[in-house]
Amino acid sequence: MTTTTPSYVGSALDRVEGLDKVTGRARYAAEHSPRDLAYAVPVQATVARGEIRSVDVDAVLKYPGVIAAIWYGNAPRLAPADDAELAVLQSRRVAYRGQYVAVVVAETLQGAREAAGLVRVEYAVEPHDVELRADHPGLYRPDHVNPAFPTDTEQGDPDAALAAAPIVLEATYSTPAEHNNPMEPHATVAVWDGDGLTLHDSTQGAPAVRDTVASLFGMPPANVRVISPHVGGGFGSKGAPHPHVILAALAAKQTGRPVKLTVTRQQMFAVTGYRTPTIQRVRLGADTDGRLTAIVHEAFEQSSTIREFAEQTTVPTRMMYAAPGRRTSHRLVRLDVPTPAWMRAPGETPGMFALESAMDELAIACGLDPVELRIRNEPEIDPESGLPFSSRNLVACLREGARRFGWAGRDPAPRIRRRGRLLVGTGVAASTYPVYRSPSRASARAEPDGRFTVRIAATDIGTGARTVLTQIAADALRTSADRVRVEIGDSALPTASLAGGSMGTASWGTAVVRACEALREELDRRGGDPAGGVEADADTTEEINGQRRLARHAFGAQFAEVGVDADTGETRVLRLLGVFAAGRIVNPKTARSQFVGGMTMGLSMALLEESVMDREFGDYLNHDFAQYHIAACADVRDVEAFWIEEDDPHLNPMGSKGIGEIGIVGTAAAVANAVHHATGVRIRDLPIRLDKLVG
After folding, report:
1. pLDDT digits (tens, 9 = 90+) for 607-619
2. How many angstroms separate the CA atoms of 111 and 132, rounded?
């Protein structure tokens, strides 16, 4: 084996699948077309709550090319589901507008669409409730919040501390429902072969889809194979299977044909998850030096009537700043709406908007620079768990960001800087994201030709996972990257955790390193001879379950400069700059892309994104890109991402922290704080529309 090779971890290696993507050779889920393929188009409920009285498919079955029309009355029975959202076509009940109530399968997509429009469903309509309010009588305390955090925490006497504090900030903030909208819409191609099922699916975790589908259809997991080599984005919406996956498999089983089901952009607003709206109350108490004495953060959120999902909105507040009196809580109400789900940095993103906006307001009340206020309240250990941090470089990020941004000498007075028609202001916010690892398996094989193959059921959702795993494997094998081939995106490979929670590289990379180390040991034992092929595998369950208890988090600081038209209120982000402490950066090129992408999504959250609920019909009104606005090129003028060198030996063999989500976390607050600095208007309810600034 080669012993003198360059170190690939830390180098800006080009994407190993880049040529396939730009030439169209990379095939996505909907691009698979097996022989005898049929097309499925769902029929969605047109009421927000009620019961189906009847389904008339007579005209559908007469339509040319129609193979089947399936509804609760003739659908194959599924096993009971832990997630009732996946009990597709198993009941007359309608829990939200847009829920699947039938599906039409036809020889062509156009024929299926036309025929689906002929399905006649009669409902017994019931009154619905779709509005989140902080005083809703149905609010309750869930048992835990995503994924398994305590719902409420309290330390000291925050009420007494607030009563005694010379400076108190009390404010309510809100964030709207937001939809993930990845570039590649959700799609599934289902193919039955006897007792076996193959799914080509756009997913962030092929093994998770396999296990869920197998359970619902009463099959051994080994009989289900999920293939997903390329995924065009997910942002959390593809982290778990949604009803369309089950519907495709169900339709293929009923018809005996391979079936393709592609979710339209409009349908995605009902059936593939979204970020819950939040109402958040923040109370901060501080002494005259700006040191916090009390932090109280309460969140009110929504879920559906058929499945509970409670976002961990106030969890980051538990470890961000030191204060002897602390309380965080979550309250949930079950409404007649689709079930919320993960969206990039769930919990941290809306929660840190409220906390970091409140910290900006507190800095003004204390007469302190917002950067200095955060530094003064830096904890030595995790304030609530009492655990030491594996590493915590928030202060370094704030100082380096301030230096690069030109923060020194900033006049804190609002509404005094003009640039032509624009009122100009700057703002800052801190960001954080937890560092996770999940048990995974991997195999490494030395091929007879001197090359290596590494296999793991990881998923590349556009982040560059295939590339960084190649780098990690090359270093672990002490060989060159061009001699390593990484196979991912298939549930038939060694089981891996999903691509989410910023834990993909850490989890998969650990398994890959251990498999490669085992392979090197075996090759050394054989004198380096790979004749006939030599293979080794690894399972990291024991290693990860036995790791030392520490508070492991990535940190960052985002700085924003905005220009607000003094007459129209139109806001533009002129500059965004982020500095992050995220352990060792495996690939600077893919890392910068992730940081910049996260900040762009945060900019979009601050100024544009909002899913508007129609209370009368119980549906989101703006369910397409004509009305659901996201940041475009003209909105993203100058975005820079930097990181500090961070050596943390308590993480994983690479020393890395996840970076896919932290970029979004503080950005919206930084923009909102900059808007206040520019205009003197404090916007506590996102997005920052011009109507909130004029007049």
Report:
1. 999 999 999 999 9
2. 40
